[in-house]
Structure formats: C-alpha cells, structure tokens
Amino acid sequence: MEKYYPDSGVELSEFTAKNYDKVMNIASFGMYKKFIYRAISDMDIKQNDKILDLGCGTGRNIKLMNNYVSDDSLLVGLDISEDMEKQFNENIKGFSNIKFYNKRIDKPFTMDEKFDKVFISFVIHGFPHEVRSTIIKNAYDSLKPGGVFNILDFAEFDMDKMPFHHRFIFKKIECKYAFDFIKRDWKHILKNDWGFDGFKEKFYFKNYVRLLSAEKK
Ligand SMILES: C[S@@+](CC[C@H](N)C(=O)[O-])C[C@H]1O[C@@H](n2cnc3c(N)ncnc32)[C@H](O)[C@@H]1O
User: What percent of the chain has pLDDT over 70?
Assistant: First the structure.
C-alpha cells in the first residue's frame, strides 16, 4: 500500500495487513481476543445502533459488535487497505447489515447515514496531530446528536515512567506519532475543540489502553 505518511505505523505493510489478526494475537501474548471482546462489550451497544468503524481492518471488531445488534441495524467499516477489505468481506459473509467502503478517513467525507456510534480502534494515534482533526471532524459529522464517539487506543501516560521492559517494547513497535498521542489531553481536545461531552473511560492492559467514549451534544 502506498504510504501517505511515511512515519505512520497504522499504514500497514502488505505482510502485516495480510496477517493482522494473527500478528495482534502474537504481539499481545494471546491476550488480544479477550481484551477486544471486553472493550466491545464496554461500548454499551444497543440493538438498533448504527455504527461506523473508521480504519476497520479485518472486520474482527465489527463482527463482535454484530453480536449486540439486530438485523435492522447498520454496521459500516471504512478502510483503505485492499488486503483488509478482502479479509473483512470474508469475515462478514452472510451479514446483510454490514458494509465495507474503501475510503480514506484522513480526508473530509460525508456519509449518507448518520450514526449512533463512531468507533476508531488503534488508528488515530498513528497520524500527525493536524490530520487527527480531520478524522475527528469526520467522526463528528457522521454522528447523530447524542451519538457517541468511541476511541479505543493508547491512554495518556508518561513514557519515561514506564517500567523499562514496557518502554522498550512500546518504543520498538510504535511510531513517532504515538509518542505524541499519549502526551495529549484528549478529553480537553474533544470538549474544547469539538464540543463533545459526557465522557466515559474504561482502561485495559495495565492502564496503557483506554476506551474513551464522548457524546456529541
Ligand atoms: C493498526 S490497524 C487497526 C485495525 C482495526 N481498527 C483494529 O483495531 O483491528 C490500522 C488500520 O487503519 C487503516 N488505515 C490506515 N490509514 C488509513 C486511512 N487514511 N484511511 C482509512 N483507513 C486507514 C489500515 O489499513 C489498518 O486497517
């Protein structure tokens, strides 16, 4: 895949994209499956929710969300990777309420539908900060009033205070944009720049990962 941001770690190599779910299972020492199951259950999904997943990857997350919704709901995944698109379509075969669009989330877009929830998981940290604003605007514009933006990603923490072995791994596997992402006050940004409110947080992996839910007023 052509890289738009050479320093980004979320624009994946062909090998990583093709083996993404396996790579995550191995990198998390087998804990990913349990973690993502818990995080999705923490999203408080309602039966008729329409959900938009930005940078949806293989469809593993949307398939889990599908356990909580009825056939009348709508689950839409957006991604730019053709390797992800193939796996997504394979994973969601037979579910007519789930759709995939090959679309860049770092450029302004408008969806035909408005959504109850927008979800973005381990994607937004991997962009330059000014580009993150476009992604947040896309999420904001895609939500109904009262809809919830769910960001599942690194929490805010001080890398220098991490135990050595955690810091070593984080520095080895993450890109420079992630080091910037963890320093920012995301509730402040979402509230002051975008007017989101009603924040809820759930933490995982020794508090290094957070599901931050923010309501569009
Ligand atoms: C680290 S993976 C996360 C995948 C998925 N959200 C998950 O949690 O399993 C990052 C994903 O973002 C996608 N991506 C990267 N840049 C993108 C862009 N500009 N527009 C849409 N998707 C993008 C990649 O193709 C990849 O599927």
Answer: 100
- Count of domains in the chain? 1
What pLDDT, on a 0 to 100 scale, did the predictor assign at position 1? 67
Give dist(CA 94, CA 91) in Å, integer: 9
Q: Which one of 2, 7, 8, 10 would you pick to mutate in the ligand 1 pocket, going by the greatest count of ligand atoms within 8 A of its CB?
A: 10
Would you give the DSSP letter of residue 149? E
Beta pairing, strands 98-102 & 74-79:
parallel
Structural domain includes residue 1: no
Testing ligand 1's pocket by substitution, the residue of 81, 91, 104, 123 carrying the most ligand atoms inside 8 A of its CB is 123
CATH of the domain at 137: 3.40.50.150
Name the burial class of residue 141, with classes exposed (0-12), middle (13-18) and buried (19+) by CB atoms within 10 angstroms of its CB.
middle
Q: Answer whether 122 contacts ligand 1 (Cβ < 6 A).
A: yes
